[in-house]
Amino acid sequence: MKGFIKLNDSTIFEGEIISKKDFGQGEVVFNTSMTGYEESITDPSYAGEILVMTYPLIGNYGVNLENLQSKRPTIKGLIVKDYCQFPSHHTSQYSLLDYLNQHEVPILSKVDTRALTKKLRIEGSMNGVITTEEDFEVPTSNENLLDSVSTKEIYRIQGNGPKIALIDLGVKKNIVNQLKSKGYDLYVFPYNSSKNDVDKVQPDLVLFSNGPGDPKKAKEAILLAKGFIGEKPLFGICLGHQIISLALGFNTVKMKFGHRGTNHPVKNLLNNKCYITSQNHGYMVEKESVKNKDVIITFINLNDHSIEGIMHKKYPIFTVQFHPEGGPGVHDTTFIFKKIKDSIYRN
Ligand SMILES: NC(=O)CC[C@H](N)C(=O)O
After folding, report:
1. For the chain, which domains are there?
2. Protein residue with its CA nearest to atom 4 in ligand 1
3. DSSP string, 124-189
4. Which of 116, 177, 191, 307 would bridge 146 by S-S if both were Cys, CB 3.0 to 4.6 A apart?
């Protein structure tokens, strides 16, 4: 069926809706990874977004549930150049189309994704709608994204190591797996937990996870992080990094088109080492706002020099904007999950 992606400046790109679902609305963002669509479509950080894959052939290795980052797709729609109808991989359980159909997520194929990506790079990410009607008005959404992806109940994944309170803002499965593999004793908390709730388990460290949307909207989590500054070691990944930065009094801003891909180079300013990292974010900590003399910038992005991590000199607080767990992507920075222990012992 003929379909369109209509952007909120009224630009229209034509394609073919190949899924059962023929409608989806969200912020239209692009990802430059050549592989990793299973992980990206189920990464809770993408909640509320329509994902454009710039790699032209998508679906060719099907879907294996093991690779998913959450229980269901979190994206509002997928836009591809060519959908591969005959996936082949020895671990594939479903075709991408069958999997997205099960969860009523639309796929728009045959789109000139190169032109669409250029448009988003020049004008910036914007809201859009996958629709069969060319004259459809692009709506805006006020969905509480954190509520849609965070756990509703506290749960524990027992380990023999230090106790981590993991504030689930939409945590990816690979982050949990990395922490589990290092033996941490995990208590996973809903995004709106109070300091009292977290204090009850007497954690050795509080970890704020990745997650969707504008960090400034995560008011409860910012307040929670504020309460722990100077009291407990803190670690943040992506949204968690932004939230801890806001709690420290810094500012976050929306990026023009964000970083979404698996080959983002970052440099560790403390030892001049460079790493290739997996990233997925549309906001960043504003460099000029990091004015606290006790806080240093640890990592920067080598493409645009934006902040990729900070560290507190007095308190055991450190954060990263990139995704050290990979999933999808490189594992160059998984050593960071071990480093968490050091920050606990520095306490
Ligand atoms: N992966 C993430 O945690 C994303 C953080 C935030 N939602 C952003 O887009 O910047």
Report:
1. 2-131 (3.50.30.20), 145-346 (3.40.50.880)
2. 281
3. --EEEEEES-TT---------HHHHHS-SS-EEE--SS-EEEEE-SS--HHHHHHHHHTT-EEEEE
4. 191
- The answer to whether the CB of 259 is under 6 A from ligand 1 is no
65-83 pLDDT per residue, tens: 999 999 999 999 999 999 9
| CA 214 to ligand 1: nearest atom | 7
For 258-274, what is each residue's pLDDT tens digit?
Answer: 999 999 999 999 999 99
Instruction: Kindly provide the ipTM of the predicted complex, given to two decimals.
Output: 0.98
Q: What is the DSSP letter of 329?
A: S
Q: How many CA atoms lie within 13 A of 118 on its CB side?
A: 5
Residue 240 CA, ligand 1 centroid: distance in Å: 8
| Candidate from 27, 45, 144 with most ligand 1 atoms within 8 A of CB, to mutate | 45
347 three-state secondary structure:
coil
239 is in an annotated binding site: yes
Flag whether 261 is marked binding: no
Min mean pLDDT across 250-254, 285-289, 327-331 is at 327-331
Coil, helix or strand at residue 319: strand
The residues facing 53 across adjacent strands are 31
Q: What whole-number distance in Å separates Cα of residue 168 and Cα of residue 62? A: 28
State if residue 250 touches ligand 1 by the CB under 6 angstroms criterion.
no
Report strand pairing: 163-167 vs 2-7. Answer: unpaired
Secondary structure class of 346 (helix, strand, coil): helix
